[in-house]
Amino acid sequence: MLSRRSLLRASTAALATPAILTGVAGRASATASTLSIDLQNNTGSNTVYAYVTGLAIDNGNAWYLLQADGQTPYYPSSPSSTGTPLAVDCAIPLSASGAGPKRITIPRIAGGRLWFSVDRKLTFLLNPGPALVEPSVTNSSDPNIDIQWDFCEFTFNSSVLYANVSAVDFAAMPIALKLTTGSGGTQSVPGLAAGGLDSICAGLTAQHAADGQGWDQLIVTSGGQNLRALSPTAGIVRNSWLFSGYYSSYVDQVWAKYASTPLYVDTQASWGTLTGTVSGGLLTFPGAGSFAKPSAADIFSCNSGPFNVSSAVMGALTARISAALNRSTLLSDANQPGGENPATYYTTSPTNHYARLVHATSTDGRGYAFPYDDVTPNGGTDQSGFVTAGDPTLLTVTLSAVHGGGGTTPPSGGSSAFSTIQASSYTSQSGTTTETTSDTGGGYDVGYIAGGDWLGYANIDFGSGGATQFIARVASGAASGVSGLVQVALDSPTATPVGSFSLGNTGGWQSWVTIPANISRVTGVHTVYLTFASGQPADFVNIHWFTFAA
């Protein structure tokens, strides 16, 4: 298993963002010793199972699971051997897709998880202790490795319910939370849009095409469909070489800056704001401790190398420095957590593009994409996607479709803007010819393209979050002095382009390169036109495929 830091927030608040729980202080305690949870299946599948695991607070923090009836507790005893199956069935069948919710009841639990699987049951095992062996996305021999599953996290004690969506380890199923309180109020986290996994995977593919850093290695498929997108930390567990050296240049710049400029970190706790400077290769906060330069693996995990700390004050510093590194704001703001708008996160290269895509694909931009994604400035906008109250009465958890819908595949049968769109799949065109390509992936490209030609693609869905980048696979064997613009226009080939890039000779008509370009944010469903402009009449470009990214 990977990091589960967010599960025990009440005891680790000093390491993350105490301000998040400040609103709970002073509230009446949660009077009920149990909590009702409604599980709503909107996945499109009529076979969905739920599981509840955690530590039973009122039973000595013993391991707790909920049996298949959704009401009866199961406290496993210690088995005599490793890998022992559970003694009872803990797979809670949900209602058919679109039908009413399945209501379950839980006791007070710390470190809780609500697990969900589609079409097949999950396998949980026991080791002596007892210790619960949970599903893993990084162990290739795990019995659940090819199953579509996901989870959300919660802690429910005598003072508070705290629950959050989680993509710290991976992203897969869209899970939404709604909390109803005793005062009649509600809180909600919509989570990923339906079909959001496909959008994230398309974005990872596009990012790898743009920078060659292996983002596509985070995509796990099964049966020709996306199964999950791993976080960089999980990806590194599977492939230790992944992202090696990725943050090196950025960290070098950070260390150089704070050798002559103080770094101020507000611990948002009793230690106040601490000042750090770099000397002798260490970022040192007098009276607290020092940090050596972190690797990419350290930055993504937030708990290895120099971030493997034991004191509370160093934990508070680690949380805020790690968040700034993942969001790439440590160079631009010497006060952390910075007062910057979240729109500035992930805009400086290198950055955590997995986290960028999780947030871009989430309906309201919130989602736990790395272990300290709950770090915000005082009074800042929550990024982590949580609900919390001291008087909870009902938690509703809604599962949506993993593929299609929600801005990924329009009902009219069009295509997601974030998928790989083959150039030869045009619905209209002028002046071009399709030909066999020798590019990776094979198939056909569209060639013999000159200024004034265009290609049209109907029903391209950019969703509500929209796209700000256009990426195309192109080649050119144009003569010396011949070049042109590849442009993106919406709904008419004569519309003003929303973005473009220029292209000259790439070494031949089958010498392929991938080129990204910024575009004005595009949302909703459009007919996309690729239009071509050149000051010379000669052909200047072939195109194999294109896509868009947030």
TrEMBL record:
Domain GH64 positions: 32-386
Matches recorded under InterPro entries: CBM6, Cellulose-bd_IV, Galactose-bd-like_sf, Glyco_hydro_64, Glyco_hydro_64_fam, Glyco_hydro_64_N_2, Osmotin/thaumatin-like_sf, TAT_signal
Protein name, UniProt field = Beta-1,3-glucanase family protein
Give the matching Pfam families. CBM_6 (PF03422), Glyco_hydro_64 (PF16483)
Q: Which CDD domains match?
A: CBM6_xylanase-like (cd04084), GH64-GluB-like (cd09220)
Taxonomic source organism: Streptomyces lutosisoli
Signal peptide (residue range): 1-30
The answer to keyword Ubl conjugation applying to this record is: no
CBM6 domain sequence ranges: 419-549
